[in-house]
Specification:
alpha+beta, protein phosphatase, manganese, Beta-Lactamase, Phosphatase 2c, domain 1, kinase, 26% strand
Length: 718
């Protein structure tokens, strides 16, 4: 008797699917089950699809793809429909791929009897509810695994997966390390339970090792099957009481990177639908582990680059404290072109350097490293600050290819830089600036003033640029702040509003906290970074924090306050000094702003305006009526409510000012008249070389022009 006759007798038909031509051949019985004449029939793929329910056809395609990939038997339940879409019967289709030179499937179809009324479908039947639960589960699992950024997070998500209809009671993820298989995570086992499985040879008889070697899944539906197939491992496994196991390869970008084990405390037959869910989860898990591995490698590289490029600050500066922060951008390698440095110089001096190479990529980080080394070399040779920046500019221009005979680079870069030579004994700061934001000084009473300094072009633009220097003195109790523009301009701020934001942070820091210089600076540095990024516990050169706009580099230098005699209350003093050359009349506006910032909390707005007007008049007179430069010094001293503003403008001319009586149309000659009307006290002091004009204003005075609040013994000098 022929095989076809035997199968027909039990209502089972044969079919053959040529995957190249798309022709599906049915024998007579299979054709009858599909509602066709009982004769050998050939249909196209689209013709075959028309005989089945659309949902079941999609399901069949997925099951077949899975079986082909795993070299296993495909099995699915499919509903046969007529031309009107009415369901005729339900069939069980089985198929297996064959190796005959061309991709093909052979299999059987048999009718599934309908359940009797009042009974439920037997286990393994695919229902619409099961499909909906499976789709919802896969969507949730995919979303959770896509959001996991580290291996630990991926394993935590995998441990919490609750699969529809069959929930694993134990999970394990295995990886490879050369010729070894290592368990990188597990759930449902104690630490002592997995010691023997933490590290195994790749050629061992463990199912995970076999899966990694072959790239094919292994399904073990019963303990007897496990003991038969893996007798050497079974004694280690049987004590856990599992009833079924699935080992699936973790394949990412075409490579097997590990294996995933799901253990079950109840029997599981591993139907095609169940295998489909497990395979889909394994694929998502492999992709998530691959992404996490790349992310962790980039982070490790970023941390290594950052630690190698960021210096260790010298903690034992006599009479001074220093703190620094570096916060990288959140994208890519999280290492950009911002940097800071601290260099020991001869005679106990030191240099503070902060800079920003254009860009936020690997090239910017590389140029930053080269430029930092060059600056250290020039500084260690003992060059003056202006010479250090001039040499650094020529060095960067050479790298950019702007030297004669060297072709232009495709992507030339420039860098801003602030170089400060510090004398800890005197607090003298010699500053050279190359297109970088100015430094700011926090007075001992908390007031923050941005100090204008002379400067030149950013490094690398013009190899012959000059960099004039500015000399400032950091007084006891004062703190200098230097930073890159990321701290100032992040969040849509410009220089003016950015400095105002930082000023609020600095001035909100309690002055009383400044007793411990190092602790005070650390708290202030954290507060400045929080003002830009919000709360975080990871700054400095430790773990990185996410960034969105620009890198940040920040340096704080504080000169320790003088000791106060026992029982004496410290009197805070804030001051500013500004030199204005004959060729810099535009800096008169800076002088006005410096005085206004110094008086930011002065209660009388009229006195503020009076002070700014007198400063403008005094400095302008020096530039117009003498051949020398003007030196402005302003200071506020005294306690709240009884403070005194003292402003001095010195020049090198011996000619003293004279009172004049200008007419209504005169454009000058009103300087001393304004002083007499607006100042609480004023005067002129001849000196050996030049003179000094000064005025004072007193907080709480009845009105401008009166010296009612002036200390005893002060009288106007005319």
């Amino acid at each position: 008797m022929r095989t076809e006759d035997v199968l027909a007798a039990v209502a089972t038909g044969l079919w053959h699917w040529d995957r190249v031509t798309g022709i599906v051949t049915f024998d007579a019985e299979a054709a009858r089950l599909l509602g066709l004449p009982a004769a050998r029939t050939e249909l196209t793929e689209s013709g075959t699809r028309a005989r089945f329910h659309a949902v079941d056809w999609v399901e069949l395609q997925g099951v077949i793809s899975l079986a082909v990939a795993e070299h296993t038997l495909a099995e699915a339940r499919i509903r046969v429909v007529d031309e009107a879409g009415k369901v005729l019967r339900t069939l069980r289709a089985r198929a297996r791929s064959v190796d005959g030179g061309t991709p093909a499937l052979v299999g059987t179809v048999a009718e599934v009897p309908e359940p009797h009324p009042g009974t439920s479908p037997r286990r393994g039947a695919v229902t619409g509810d099961w499909r909906r639960h499976r789709e919802a589960f896969l969507l949730d699992a995919g979303r959770a695994l896509a959001e996991a950024r580290s291996t630990a997070e991926v394993l935590r998500v995998a441990a919490g997966l609750s699969m529809p209809g069959f929930e694993p009671s134990a999970l394990a993820v295995f990886g490879t390390d050369g010729s070894r298989v290592t368990m990188i995570g597990h759930h449902g086992y104690g630490t002592e339970d997995v010691e023997a499985l933490l590290d195994m040879p790749l050629d061992s008889s463990h199912p995970a090792a076999e899966v990694i070697r072959t790239g094919r899944a292994i399904y073990i539906p019963s303990p007897d099957d496990y003991a038969r197939r893996f007798p050497r491992i079974w004694p280690l496994v049987k004590r856990f009481g599992r009833r079924a196991w699935a080992f699936l390869p973790l394949i990412n970008a075409g490579q097997t990177i590990g294996a995933w084990m799901a253990g079950f405390s109840v029997p599981v037959s591993f139907t095609p639908d169940e295998r489909s869910v497990l395979t889909t989860v394994a694929r998502m898990l492999a992709q998530a582990l691959g992404r996490a591995s790349v992310h962790e490698s980039e982070k490790e590289l970023s941390v290594g680059l950052q630690r190698s490029m960021m210096p260790t600050l010298q903690p034992d500066i006599p009479g001074m404290s220093v703190a620094a922060r570096y916060v990288p951008t959140g994208g890519g390698l999280q290492v950009g072109g911002d940097w800071y440095d601290m260099i020991s110089l001869p005679d106990g001096r030191l240099a503070l350097v902060i800079g920003d190479v254009q860009g936020h990529d690997v090239r910017a980080a590389g140029l930053m490293g080269q430029l930092r080394i060059a600056l250290r070399a020039y500084a260690s040779e003992g060059h003056h600050p202006d010479a250090v920046l001039s040499r650094a500019s020529r060095f960067l221009a050479g790298i950019n290819g702007s030297r004669p005979g060297i072709p232009e680079e495709v992507d030339p870069r420039f860098a801003t830089c602030l170089y400060i030579e510090v004398d800890p004994a005197t607090g003298l700061l010699v500053i050279a600036r190359a297109g970088h934001p100015d430094p700011a000084i926090r007075m001992d009473d908390g007031t923050l003033l941005v100090r204008s300094t002379a400067g030149g072009l950013p490094l690398g633009i013009d190899p012959d640029s000059d960099y004039p220097t500015t000399r400032l003195v950091l007084e006891p109790g004062e703190t200098m702040l230097v930073c890159t523009d990321g701290l100032i301009e992040t969040g849509g701020h410009d220089l003016e509003t950015g400095w105002q934001r930082l000023r609020e942070v600095v001035e909100a820091q309690p002055t009383g906290d400044a007793a411990d210089g190092s602790a005070f600076l650390e708290e202030l540095a954290d507060g400045l970074v929080r003002a830009v990024h919000g709360p975080s516990s990871h700054y400095t050169t430790g773990p990185l924090v996410d960034r969105r706009e620009d890198d940040i580099a920040l340096l704080l230098l504080r000169r320790e306050p003088l000791a106060v005699p026992a029982g004496a209350a410290p009197v805070p003093t804030r001051r500013t000094v500004l030199a204005i050359a004959q060729a810099e009349p535009e800096r008169i506006a800076e002088a006005r702003q410096q005085v206004r910032d110094l008086m930011h909390d002065w209660p009388d707005e009229d006195q503020k305006d009076s002070a700014v007007l007198m400063v403008s008049e005094m400095v302008t007179n020096v530039l117009v009526h003498t051949d020398g430069d003007a030196l402005l010094r302003a200071a506020i001293s005294g306690g709240p409510g009884r403070r005194r503003l003292r402003v001095d403008v010195a020049d090198s001319s011996d000619e003293l000012p004279h009172r004049r009586h200008p007419g209504e149309m005169a454009s000058s000659g009103r300087g001393l008249v304004l002083m007499e009307l607006l100042a609480g006290a004023w005067g002129v002091e001849p000196r050996g070389e030049g003179k000094n004009i000064w005025f004072e204003l007193y907080e709480g005075a009845e009105a401008p022009g009166t010296s009612a609040a002036a200390p005893a013994g002060l009288e106007a000098v005319t």
